[in-house]
Design goal:
Distance between the termini: 33 Å
Shape: globular
Oligomer: single chain
Number of helices: 3
């Protein structure tokens, strides 16, 4: 999904369901250069934004960026082949 497409979804959700929770997940969202931009727009539209990550890229450098972008929480998936 392009940034423009993601922003369109955010706009639609904000219009249709203000106050809804938007979970940014799948693949690894921390790889998206526009992740914080999408979250900021969603927060402005009244959505509660949460990150779903596998945790491999989550670092102390990310935390303040995520907070500033308006993320309300982070879910880390713990999976194993064992």
């Amino acid at each position: 999904m392009t940034t423009q497409q993601a922003m369109g979804v955010v706009e639609q959700l904000g219009d249709f369901c203000p106050g809804a929770m938007l979970i940014l997940t799948e693949g690894e969202p921390l790889l998206r250069e526009d992740l914080c931009q999408i979250a900021e727009q969603a927060t402005r539209r009244g959505l509660s934004v949460v990150l779903g990550s596998n945790g491999t890229l989550l670092s102390a450098e990310w935390i303040p960026r995520l907070q500033a972008a308006g993320f309300r929480g982070v879910g880390v998936s713990l999976d194993s082949i064992y």
